[in-house]
Amino acid sequence: MKTVITYGTYDLFHYGHLCLLKRAKALGDYLIVAVSTDEFNEIKHKKCVYPYEERAAIVKAIKYVDEVIPESSWDQKVSDVLDHHVDIFVMGDDWRGDFDFLGEHCEVVYLPRTPDISSTEIKDDIRGGKGII
Ligand code: C2G
Fold it and tell me: Atom 26 (ligand 1): residue with closest C-alpha?
């Protein structure tokens, strides 16, 4: 059984997230998604609309996802890969190169981002550019 892991904020779940998770699952048999906690998002300077519990529940409901774990620090990836016997680490290619260090523990795959969609753009669209949210 091939285990795949990926990490993300997954706020305002959108088609780009879905495409990433679908392709990540297609690389193996079991997909773990580490969803960043609200506290970790503070560190990432990412302001979320949905709290962790809701972001994690939405990701867990996606049929490609087998397990959701919290991502609470930048430094947990090596132990996650070892603890969960991960074979493949996957991220969108906006992260290309950032996680190559994991290559000594598992395969590292960067997948092309889905163009023209992001949680930030969705927020801007809803705001209509007025920044009211
Ligand atoms: N993604 C994508 N296409 C988009 C938007 C996002 O393929 N149009 C991918 C990202 O590359 C990432 C995943 O979807 O692999 C989740 O994206 P975010 O929720 O924006 O994750 P991010 O805030 O980049 O957090 O330790 C890693 C971080 O937790 C990643």
Answer: 7
Q: Tokens representing 29?
A: 């048999």
Domain 3-127: what homologous superfamily?
HUPs (3.40.50.620)
* Tens-place pLDDT, residues 77-109: 999 999 999 999 999 999 999 999 999 999 999
3-state secondary structure of 90: strand
Q: Kindly compute the dihedral angle of the four CA atoms of residues 88, 85, 10, 47, in this order, to the nearest 10 degrees.
A: -110
* Cα-to-centroid distance, 103 and ligand 1 (Å): 19
pLDDT for 23-63, tens place per residue?
Answer: 999 999 999 999 999 999 999 999 999 999 999 999 999 99
Q: How far is the CA of 92 from the centre of ligand 1 (A)?
A: 6
CA 48 to chain centre: 14
CB 13 less than 6 A from any atom of ligand 1:
no
Q: Is the CB of 87 under 6 A from ligand 1?
A: no
Q: Is the CB of 91 under 6 A from ligand 1?
A: yes
pTM over 0.90: yes
